[in-house]
Amino acid sequence: MKIPEHLQYTAEHLWVRPHEDGYWLAGITDYAQDLLGDIVYVEAPKPGSHITAGQPCGLVESVKTGSDLHAPLNATVIAINEALQSTPENINDKPYDAWIFSFQPDTEPTGLLSAAEYQALLG
C-alpha cells in the first residue's frame, strides 16, 4: 500500500494537496480504493458548493459497496474531475493521480495528517 510523503490525509481516507493554481486537489487513498474494490461510480460534490469538514460531500461506489466522501476541510468546491464520470476505475489504477474534486479552503488548512500520521492511523 502506497502512502506518498508529499500528500496530506484525513482520517476518512482522503488525500489532499495544494495545486499550483492556488486550489487544492482531493482524492481517495490507496487504502480506501483497495477496501472498496472495483470502483464503478463517483459522485463528486458540485462545483460552487460549500463543503464542511468531516461531513459527507459525495459518494464512491464499487462492485462491493458505496462509501461517502467526507469533506477534508471547510471549503468551496472549484471543479470536479470530469474524466472520472466515464472512467471511475482510474481511481483503482492510480489513486494518487485520479483527483476527484478541487477546492478552495475557507481558511489556512489545519487538522490534516502527515503520511506518517496516516500510516499510524491505519496501524
Chain oligomer state: single chain
**How many structural units, i.e. domains?**
1
Structural class: alpha+beta
CATH class: Mainly Beta
Q: How would you state the average pLDDT, rounded? A: 96
Count the beta strands: 9
Family: Belongs to the GcvH family.
InterPro entries: Biotin_lipoyl, GCV_H, GCV_H/Fam206, GCV_H_sub, Single_hybrid_motif
Modified residues (N6-lipoyllysine): 64
Protein name: Glycine cleavage system H protein
Describe this structure in words.
With 123 residues, this protein is α+β, with helices and mostly antiparallel strands. It has one domain (8-109): RNA polymerase II/Efflux pump adaptor protein, barrel-sandwich hybrid domain (OB fold (Dihydrolipoamide Acetyltransferase, E2P)), CATH 2.40.50. It has four helices and nine strands. The protein has a six-stranded antiparallel sheet. Strands 4-6-7 form a three-stranded antiparallel sheet. A hairpin with a 4-residue loop joins strand 1 (8-9) and strand 2. It is globular, with a radius of gyration of 13 Å. The model has no long low-confidence stretch (mean pLDDT 96). The glycine cleavage system is composed of four proteins: P, T, L and H. Keywords: Lipoyl.
Nutshell version of this structure?
By secondary structure, this protein is of the alpha+beta class. The protein has four helices and nine strands; from the N terminus they run βββαβββββααβα.
Overview features:
4 helices, Glycine cleavage system H protein, OB fold (Dihydrolipoamide Acetyltransferase, E2P), lipoyl, alpha+beta, six-stranded antiparallel β-sheet, GCV_H, GCV_H_sub, three-stranded antiparallel β-sheet, 19% helix, globular, Single_hybrid_motif, 123 residues, single chain
